[in-house]
Amino acid sequence: MMIIQTSALRKCFGKIEAVAGIDMNIEKGEIFGLLGPNGAGKTTTIGMLCTIVRPSSGAASIAGYNVVKEPALVRRQVGIVFQDPTLDTVLTGRENLELHARLYNFPSRIRKERIDQMLELVDLKQRADDITRTYSGGMRRRLELARGLLHRPAVLFLDEPTLGLDPQTRARLWEYIKKTAQAEQTTIVLTTHYMEEAEKVCDRVGIIDHGRIIALDTPQKLKETMGGEMIVVRAEKQPLEKILALPYVSEIRENDGALEIITKEAHRRLPKILSLLKDVHCVEMRVPTLNDVFIKLTGRDIRDDTVDDSGSWVDSVARYRQRGS
Amino acid sequence: MDNGFIRRELMGVYAVWWREFKVFQREKSRIVSSIVQPLMWLFLFGSGIGASVTIGSFAYRDYIYPGILSMLVLFGSVYFGLYIVWDRKLDVLKAILVAPVSRISIFLGKVLGGCTDVILQILVLFSLSFLFPAVNPWGIPLALLLLLITAIGMVSLGLALGSLFESLEGFQVVSAFLIFPLFFLSGALFPITEKLPLWLRGLVKLNPLTYTVDGVRGALLNVNVFPLYVDFLVIIIFAAGMLFLGSVLFSRMK
Q1: SS3 (DSSP) at A207
Q2: Interval A271-320: pLDDT, tens
Q3: Which residues from A are below 8 Å from B11, CB to CB?
Q4: Which pLDDT value is given to residue A18?
Q5: A155 forms bridges with which residues in the sheet?
Q6: Which of A115, A127, B15, B236 has its CB 3.0 to 4.6 Å from that of A102, i.e. a possible disulfide?
Q7: Interface-testing mutation among A89, A92, A103, A152, with chain B (most B C-beta atoms within 10 A)
Q8: Is residue A325 predicted with pLDDT exceeding 60?
Q9: Is there a single domain that holds both residue A204 and residue A265?
Q10: Are residues A27 and A67 in the same domain?
Q11: Measured between beta carbons, which residues in chain A are less than 8 angstroms from residue B7?
Q12: Of A176, A221, A188, A167, which is closest to residue A33 (Cα–Cα)?
């Protein structure tokens, strides 16, 4: 069953086309990742699905409700964890959840039980009655996760949930996200530009660039489109025709001064390939990552574009447009 | 418009009010300072001027007591409303605004929250009314009603302005060009008589707070410039107008 369906969903801000027509179907119960650089249109897409941003054209529905015509019904079906923290830092953790439960008109007789359950799920029971101002970044994120799921939404949106957290906290948060999604049987749609993390968590990913989805599949299938494993070689400049002529080599690219040779069964082909190369400084063999897929599809590294996390999306759009053209 | 709809919206109003009340309980220093300021007006300013000034048969301090109550409502309410600029900056409102509750209900919850804050502060000042011999304690309920209606209007005004401003600089502008003029032109500190220059009298009569001060003074000290029904009429119209304006602007707020 499709829980989210969009067709030609589009959003313009003035002359800038932030989302340029997105068609996607997301199945009930899956963890779906929208991957792309800042300004690719991820947040705007989520905004439209949550009824915060009004689409310029196209249609979208969540759990069968139209986001433009039935926003109130859609809102009851979705939970959101925003990119920027939105906890009420004057209130305690428990009070934040109580406020949320009331706003979503969660039945009062099971409210307390439900709040305790969610606090337990994100391991915040000990700190539940402390003011959230005293929480660490990771704890705040976990509480927001609990809040987003409190009213049993059909879909939980997580916009860059690990942004600004240190790697260790990020890894733990993903554990919580997977755990809660499973416990609550919620469909999760998340955005991130941490490709490695998305790869581990998501059932399917959509790669979005300049407001368009340019690839959509399971991480495994997307990586298979690379046509094999990668042998990354640093060597002096030299002719490569002989290597390219090998039947099992599908592609050779230059990236950041290194040669990336894409081949099937790299571990068996490595000796032959190396024998055809002169002056090799170092060699590395690896399976392609989603980031490699992204580079292949867009011609650039997602990380090149994500230096400035704080930049406004308008700046980002302008920047990417320049680079992309 | 089924029953469920109304219940959900009422729950939303209650949720926002509950949040504001929690914040109010927690920010003790803010409450203390908001009570101390009117006390300074009454006891430092009032006693100082009162040493050489009486108004009619009233000690100056007694005479300005209704005016200072009105001042507390004005300052407390408008600043409470303006505070949403800060809420928005901290993204506190964002999570509330995406809930399945209409903007109007969130707005009303805020208005009720602000009125509760202000009226509780007013009650503290009323508890000190025995220090002002001329004040008739039986007039307190009527005064409270007038102040409550005024608070509804002023919180709405603050929220309306707060939904327009993007930054905190708006605070200064509103203080300088709205709150202080409303206070000084309300007759809170001086009687509205024929002796006032014509331009000043004109401005005073245009100020809705004038009618609050006059009504409260009538209730507590039994001196009126305008009939009580005029006072009520003006502040009810003011409150209704501000509720309307505030809910429109709040609903349009990004």
Answers
A1: strand
A2: 888 888 888 888 888 888 888 888 888 877 766 554 444 434 444 344 34
A3: 102-103, 105
A4: 92
A5: A78, A187
A6: B15
A7: A103
A8: no
A9: no
A10: yes
A11: 105
A12: A188
How confident is the model at residue A303, as a pLDDT?
62
The answer to whether residue A26 sits within a structural domain is yes
Percentages of chain B per state (helix, strand, coil), in multiples of 5: 80, 0, 20
Please check whether residues A252 and A198 belong to one and the same domain: no
Cβ-nearest to A104 among B14, B22, B99: B99
Residue A324 lies in a domain: no
Asked whether residue A216 falls in the same domain as residue A235, the answer is: no
Over residues B211-233, mean pLDDT? 96
Structure tokens at B194: 């024929």
Q: Does A95 touch chain B (CB under 8 A)?
A: yes
What tokens appear for A70 in the block? 């039935």
Q: Where are the beta strands (DSSP E) in chain A?
A: 2-13, 16-27, 31-35, 57-62, 65-66, 78-81, 155-159, 187-192, 204-209, 212-217, 229-235, 249-255, 258-263, 280-286
Token duo for residue A53: 């941003």
Return the structure tokens found at A316. 């980002």
**A109 touching chain B per CB within 8 A:** no
- Asked whether residue A109 is domain-assigned, the answer is yes
Residue pair B106/B249 in contact by the 8 Å Cβ criterion? no
State the average pLDDT for chain A. 86
Q: How many domains does chain A have?
A: 2
Q: Which residues contact A66 (CB under 8 A, 6 or more apart)?
A: A59, A60, A74
Q: Would you state the pLDDT for residue A315? A: 41
CATH of the domain at A80: 3.40.50.300
Q: For residue A322, is pLDDT > 50? A: no
Query: A-chain residues within 8 Å CB-CB of B91?
Result: 82, 84-86
pLDDT in tens, A20-71: 999 999 999 999 999 988 888 898 999 999 998 999 999 999 999 999 999 9
**Helix B140-164 crosses helix B228-252 at what angle (to 10 degrees)?**
30
Q: φ, ψ for residue A118 (rounded to 5)?
A: -70, -40
Q: Do A99 and B98 touch (CB under 8 A)?
A: no
Model pLDDT for residues B166-201, shown as the tens digit of each residue: 888 888 888 889 999 999 999 999 999 889 999 999
Query: What would the pLDDT profile of B126-162 be if each residue is shown by its tens digit?
Result: 999 999 999 999 999 999 999 999 999 999 999 999 9
Answer yes or no: is A21 within a domain. yes
Q: Which residues are paired to A12 by β-bridges?
A: A17
Task: State the pTM of this model.
Answer: 0.87
Contact predicate B98/B233, CB 8 Å = no
Chains A, B: CB pairs < 8 Å: 65
For residue A269, give its domain range.
227-287
Report the CATH number at residue A271. 3.30.70.920
**Is A208 found in the same domain as A109?**
yes
Q: Give the CA angle between residues B140, B144, B145 to the nearest 5°.
A: 125
